Each structure stands twice: as structure tokens, then as C-alpha cells.
Amino acid sequence: MKKVKVAVLGATGMIGQRFIQMLEGHPYFEMEGLYASERSDGKKLADVLKVRDHDYVPETLEMTMETMDISEVAKRARVAFVGLPSDLAGPTETQLAESGVAVFTNAGAHRMDPDVPILIPEINPGHLEMVKAQKSYGNGGFIVANANCSTTGAALPLAAIEKAFGLNEVYISTYQALSGAGYPGVPSLDAVGNVVPYIGGEEEKVETELAKILGNAGPDGFEYAKFGVFANCARVPVIDGHMEALVIKTGKKATVDAVVDALEKFAGPPQELGLPSAPEAPIVVRREQNRPQPALDSFAGGTGRSRGMSVSVGRVREKDGRIKLFLLSHNTLRGGSGGSVLNAELALRRKYL
Ligand code: NAP
After folding, report:
1. Domain 149-330: which CATH class?
2. Is 15 close to ligand 1, i.e. is its CB under 6 Å away?
């Protein structure tokens, strides 16, 4: 198979460097350029390295950053993976799509656009179809978003539970890692030995994005799911991995065993097609009383590209007709770059690229 040429935008950032990790030696994609601001122009990846748990191959460490230039990206790449700040990402992604580039973004700017899918391939692969309604689609360009990092973690188990029992309401409390704020992120004196009970815009994102992801997409656009979502979001001094505590009111009565069964059986096109970044199981259920934990379970999923691509769920309990559980997902892998790369793999296999 001839590899598709791709660019990474925001390649010096937390998300950008996870993109590079996911794209090293990728069977479908070949990195054609790494782009950041002019501050980083000419620097090698080795000089700006922020990811400490992955051994990049020597040739990747030698790759150099270029100042982002939209026409240059469009000339050289069929696909752009975006890890830019949202205010810059919005207009950049529109111009790239208009220039015929397929954009797979982590930024929030276009997530709630009426023709942009928030894609999680195990949950709503059919939403990819919506890119055909985008004005740029005629010349090959389109935008696919992935969800906010804490939304992704909750969406996978909620989709499994929704499919089996229906959903009425969900209460979500998050314990979010520092890497979720980018680099350098939260000042150390605010973070160490502390919990910050505010992440700007996060609760609103979780509440609105879940309804779009778990809703339907059709000729009349997106129809949002109707269950209630109530989120409280906090930043905790953990490096990687967002924990979340959920209380879920299901439509039909659900027992603990039936919920665990639904979570463990949940899978979709990434597993059926054997996509390169797909974890064997999108949801891993832990039976121990004290799991999942960020220090032990953030990288659940497998080896290589699927490392960090599973959501871990634990402490599934039932009380007064409600299900309680904890979950953990890697915010820059499954909840970030890994999610975008999985989206692009599905798009390629479904002949959008
Ligand atoms: P980050 O670490 O702050 O990285 C930002 C990147 O944008 C850097 O490469 C930076 O390059 C580049 N950039 C900034 N200004 C630029 C300009 N004028 N021209 C070109 N490049 C520019 O942020 P991040 O955490 O990777 O997040 C990136 C995006 O992903 C954000 O929209 C964020 O909300 C979203 N996201 C993050 C997470 C997460 O867990 N971190 C998860 C999901 C989604 P320089 O180094 O040259 O300044």
C-alpha cells in the first residue's frame, strides 16, 4: 500500500509529540512535515522532547520543526493532524480543508459545528458520513474532530451501557492529569500537593459533546442524545491519565454483572478491521478494589500503537437503581492523538482518503 503523506501541526506540544509517537513507522501514513511556531523553527525533535515514556527511533529524533505555513502544508500533505491551541486551530483548519486537506484535530474549535463529526470509531463510525456535508468535501478537504480528553474517557463506557440499558442521567466527577493542560501547563506551585476545582470550559464540553457523540447523524444533521449530563471537573497532580467517577441512572434496570458483561463485550469497527492503533478491547474492566490507578493503568491497551488506547473501568457497583464506577483513560493517547490517528485509520479504510 502506498502510504498517505501527513503533516503534524503543533509538533512541539504534548499532543503533537504523541502524534509523532503514533505515526512512527505507521503502516498507512508517512510523516511529511512537523510544524510549530516560528519560535521552534529549525529545532530537532530531540531538542524539544516532552514525552518521556516512549523511545523515539533515532531518525525521528533528527526530524526538524518548520514554521507553520498553510499553503506549504497543503502542497505537501493529504492529511493534517492538529495539536494547535484552539483559537489558532479554528481558522487554520478551515483553510486547510478548503485547500483539499483532510484534517484530524484535537482542538475544540470546530467540534460543535453542525457538519463536523466528533468521531470515536467504536461508538459512532457512521458519523464520519457527515463530512460529505462540508463545503470543502468536493475538493477532498474535510474536518473530523475527536472529543475533549475527559469526554472520550466517559463516552466509551457510557456507549456500552447506553446500548444495553439506555441512559437517563449521568453524574461525572473528574480528576484530570496535568498533561491535559499542555506544556508547561499549570504552574508547579499551583499543582503540587493540591487539587484545583476548575478547568475553564471543561464541564460544558463534557456535557455538550457527549450528547453529540451518543446521538444520531442523518440527512437532517446531528440529533443530540437526550440523557442528562452533570459534570464537575478538577485538576490533580498526576502526569498522565484522567480518572473519572460516574453515577449513572440507566433506562432499564442494570445489575453489576450485566454492566460488566456489556462493558467487556463492547467493540466496533477498529477491532473488526484490525486498525493499527486499535486496542484489542476498548474497555478493560478491573476486578481489584483499588484499580484503576493512573500510575498503574494509564497505558492499558496493548503494546506499540495500541498502548494507552483502552479505557480502564473499575469498582462497578449498584445502589438504589444507579450504577457507580470509576474509569481511567490516557488523555493524550486515547483522549488525544491516538484518538485522531484511529479516526484517520478508519477514514482511510472507508475510502475517504
Ligand atoms: P501545547 O503543549 O501547549 O502545544 C501547543 C502547540 O501549538 C505547540 O507545538 C506550539 O508550538 C504550537 N503553536 C502555538 N502557537 C503557534 C503558532 N502561532 N503557529 C504555529 N504553531 C503554534 O498544547 P497541547 O496540550 O498539545 O494541546 C494542543 C491542542 O489539543 C489544544 O487545542 C488542546 O485543547 C487539545 N487537546 C489537548 C489534550 C491534552 O490532554 N493535552 C487532549 C485533547 C485535546 P511552539 O512550541 O513553537 O510554541
Report:
1. alpha beta
2. yes
Ligand 1 atom closest to Cα of residue 67: 20
Q: Domain residues of the chain, as ranges?
A: 4-147+337-349, 149-330
Q: Name beta bridge partners: 61.
A: none
Q: How confident is the model at residue 124 (pLDDT cuts 50, 70, 90)?
A: very high
pLDDT 10s digits, 85-122? 999 999 999 999 999 999 999 999 999 999 999 999 99
Instruction: Give the C-alpha separation, 102 to 28, whole Å.
Output: 14
CATH number for the domain running over 4-147+337-349? 3.40.50.720
Q: Is 268 in the pocket of ligand 1 (CB under 6 A)?
A: no
Instruction: Return the DSSP state at 3.
Output: P
pLDDT digits (tens, 9 = 90+) for 258-315: 999 999 999 999 999 999 999 999 999 999 999 999 999 999 999 999 999 999 999 9
Would you say 337 and 22 are in contact if contact means Cβ atoms under 8 Å apart?
Answer: yes
DSSP 3-state percent helix, strand, coil across the chain (nearest 5): 35, 25, 40
Distance of CA 182 from the midpoint of ligand 1 (Å): 6
* pLDDT tens-digit series, residues 322-343: 999 999 999 999 999 999 999 9
Strands 102-105 and 142-145: parallel
Mean pLDDT of 146-165: 98
Helices and strands of the chain, counted as H and E runs? 11, 14
Q: Which residues contact 340 (CB under 8 A, 6 or more apart)?
A: 19, 81, 82, 104, 105, 106, 144, 146
CA-atom Rg of the chain in angstroms: 19
For 272-300, b where at least 16 C-beta lie within 10 A, e where not — what string? eeebbbbbebbbbbbeeeebbbbeebbbb
Q: What is the pLDDT of residue 1?
A: 82
CA distance 122 to 27: 21
Ligand 1 center to 88 CA (angstroms): 9
**What gap in Å lies between CA 269 and CA 350, rounded to an integer?**
10
Ligand 1 pocket residue status of 332, Cβ below 6 Å: yes
**What is the 3-class SS of 307-319, one letter each residue?**
CCCCEEEEEEEEE
Q: Taking the model in full, what pTM does it have?
A: 0.98
